[in-house]
Amino acid sequence: MSLIEARGLTKSFGGDVVLQGVNIAIDPSEIVTIVGPNGSGKSTLLRMLAGVLKPDGGEISHAAGLTIGYVPQKLELEASLPMTVRRFLNVPRRVSEAAAERALERVGVKALKGRSLEGLSGGQMQRVLLARALIVEPDVLMLDEPTQGLDQPGQAEFYRLIEDLRSELGCAVMMVSHELHVVMSASDRVICLNGHICCEGTPEIVRNAPEYRRLFGSGTQGALALYRHEHDHVHDENCGHNHAHDHEDAH
Ligand SMILES: Nc1ncnc2c1ncn2[C@@H]1O[C@H](COP(=O)(O)OP(=O)(O)OP(=O)(O)O)[C@@H](O)[C@H]1O
């Protein structure tokens, strides 16, 4: 059974239709990535599936007792409110010391516990946001452009962490991203959105879909070549998914 199932979702803002007729389901333990041009409704869809925004039409059902960890696109913090990482983990709900430490440790930033949020680098901040989303032990982790502003090695490292967390916790992951080459290689399924679902399937299927190529083909030649190269080889049976998919190779 799917963890989240949505049918016929529609959403408009001020008379402009942003999403129409969207059917989507998320199954346990899968990594699903939503790609699409700016303004194509990706964040809106994610927020509706996470339950923080109401659709105008259609239905969304969550599996009984479903927990969702949501990492927003960016954090709106009051500049006048300095806060340590530890205190931030108490928002919106107070968490035990043990739970806070476990979450920070899982994403490799336990040492930042006493640091002020303001002084964190982009990559550190993303990990703290991720740690906060993990506190609920989510069945589904939802991430909205989680690597915005990170350099390429930083992005690749972050997506590897996401894959490790999926293996370790068994949670499904749904994310929105613009880093096509990195994110597609880390995904089980890709959904290409542009007000409606243009195409979806394995990264390989989406990469070859004319709808996808129309939207991204010309702008991402390098990225697509990089991605295609990475999946030209047959994976060794004994090879886990811990290896990087993001390096360029001279073959
Ligand atoms: N709360 C809102 N009020 C008014 N318009 C909104 C609101 N949220 C989203 N929109 C509009 O809906 C459209 C889709 O926005 P959304 O953020 O979902 O797109 P996106 O695909 O995530 O874009 P991007 O890649 O730029 O982040 C945009 O035109 C945006 O201006």
Strand content: 15-25%
H-E order = EEEHEEHHHEHEHEEHHH
Give helix % range.
25-40%
User: Could you state the CATH homologous superfamily of the largest domain?
Assistant: P-loop containing nucleotide triphosphate hydrolases
Gross morphology is globular
The CATH class of the largest domain is Alpha Beta
- Point out poorly predicted stretches: 219-251
Biggest sheet layout: 6 strands, mixed
How many distinct helices?
9
Number of domains: 2
E-strand count: 9
Bound molecules: adenosine-5'-triphosphate
The average pLDDT is 83
Would you write up a description of this structure?
This protein has 251 residues and is of the alpha/beta class. The chain folds into 2 domains: 1-67 and 140-220, 3-Layer(aba) Sandwich (Rossmann fold), CATH 3.40.50.300; 75-137, no CATH class. Helix content is 33%, strand content 22%. The chain has 9 helices and 9 strands. The strands form 2 sheets. It has a 6-stranded mixed beta sheet, sandwiched between helices. The protein has a 3-stranded antiparallel beta sheet with strand order 2-1-4, with helices on one face. Strand 8 (189-193) and strand 9 form a beta hairpin. Helix 3 packs across helix 4. The longest helix has 18 residues, at 152-169. The chain starts with a strand and ends in a 21-residue tail after the last helix. Bound molecules: adenosine-5'-triphosphate. Residues 13, 18, 36, 38-44 line the site of adenosine-5'-triphosphate (ATP). Residues 13, 18, 36, 38-44 line the site of adenosine-5'-triphosphate. InterPro entries: AAA+_ATPase, ABC_transporter-like_ATP-bd, ABC_transporter-like_CS, Metal_Ion_Import_ABC, P-loop_NTPase. One of its GO terms (molecular function) is ATP hydrolysis activity. It comes from Lentibacter algarum. This is Zinc transport system ATP-binding protein. Residues 4-219 form the ABC transporter domain.
